[in-house]
Design brief:
Blueprint: E1 3-4, H1 9-24, E2 29-33, E3 36-37, H2 40-47, E4 53-57, E5 72-75, H3 83-96, E6 105-110, E7 120-125, H4 126-129, H5 135-141, H6 147-163, E8 172-176, H7 179-184, E9 186-188, H8 207-216, E10 222-225, E11 231-238, H9 253-264, E12 268-272, E13 279-283, E14 286-292, E15 297-300
Parallel strand pairs: 1-3, 2-4, 2-6, 4-5, 8-10
Antiparallel strand pairs: 6-7, 8-12, 9-11, 10-11, 12-13, 13-14, 14-15
């Protein structure tokens, strides 16, 4: 059973302190990080105007009714992870969802010692913690792949890079969009765990499917995902030629496969490094974005130029 936030006098005092900091420091938002759910009606009575507030918890269910009451919400799906990692992910998601702007300041409220209470207030400068990753950047990467699909897969890749599976490093490769050409330029590595399931049971937007993908990510081969988020195949060997492709020294076969498939198709590839969990996004045979999972700092290397595949 998840924790329920205690609405105490301490909570009221921390909220008032956060609101004062928000005004005095001209911050962009007040981020409330919860380790469980809350009575959102009571929370709204305490905070008053909910518009400056972003509330983050681990599941959609824990945020039930918060949207209806005017709070901006973020479902992290990172139960059990350290507070710092969840806080960094919440800020990254807030940027990609256009809740806050890169380089701004936010006030953060969270429980550093007790999971069912708020006992810490911090003023965080995003310039020091996060570089630029916005929905505009991701939109420029995809014309045919919906933004929500892309964001979901990138977030999943970052989670895999950060925590692996059961504490063990995991490297994997997602190839998104232009599925017919991608399937034509790849072949099965062996048994495909997603084969035989209906399309509704293979959609990456379903949290249960994402948990299953974390298991499949431990197997060899790429995971092929269509623009609508359906996992079309897994454990695929990429056959695209790597001619005239140049990558940084030290990148392995997974990254060469990502570069090759994006050079010969209109797909976007997202590779997770097994050695350090770094996430790299490929397009047109090149690395376009790198995300370091230890501090979740994204680096935009260049602007994307992406045209939809011809039908």
């Amino acid at each position: 059973m998840s924790n329920i936030l205690r609405i105490t006098e301490q909570f009221r005092l921390f909220v008032e302190q956060a609101k004062s900091l928000y005004v005095e420091m001209e911050a962009s938002a007040i981020l409330v990080l919860l380790d469980g759910s809350a009575d959102w009606v009571r929370v709204k009575k305490v905070v008053g105007d909910p518009s400056p507030f972003i509330v983050a918890a681990d599941t959609v269910e824990q945020l039930n009714l918060a949207d209806d009451l005017g709070f901006k919400t973020i479902a992290l799906e990172m139960a059990g992870n350290p507070v710092y990692d969840r806080l960094m992910q919440a800020m990254l998601r807030a940027i990609t969802d256009d809740y806050i702007k890169p380089g701004s300041q936010i006030v953060a409220l969270y429980g550093g010692f007790e999971s069912d209470s708020i006992d810490t207030v911090s003023l965080i400068s995003l310039k020091e913690h996060l570089n630029r990753l916005t929905s505009t950047d991701l939109r420029s990467l995809n014309t045919t792949v919906p933004l929500e699909t892309l964001k979901t897969i990138v977030n999943l890749a970052v989670e895999i890079g950060l925590s692996g599976r059961e504490g063990k490093p995991v490297g994997t490769l997602f190839v998104v969009g232009d599925k017919q050409k991608v399937l034509a330029e790849s072949r099965p590595a062996g048994f495909d765990p997603v084969r035989g399931y209906s399309r509704s049971e293979r959609n990456i937007m379903d949290p249960r499917v994402r948990e299953g993908i974390k298991e499949i990510a431990q197997l060899d081969g790429a995971i092929i995902i269509s623009a609508d988020g359906t996992v079309e195949a897994s454990c695929r060997i990429i056959d695209s030629p790597a001619d005239n492709i140049t990558l940084s020294k030290g990148l392995g076969s997974r990254h060469w496969a990502a570069a090759a498939i994006t050079r010969s198709t209109k797909a976007v590839a997202i590779a997770v490094s097994e050695t350090n969990g770094t996430v790299r996004i490929f397009q047109n045979g090149e690395v376009m974005l790198r995300i370091e999972p230890t501090n979740r700092k994204p680096f935009i290397w260049k602007k994307f130029e992406y045209e939809p595949p011809e039908n």
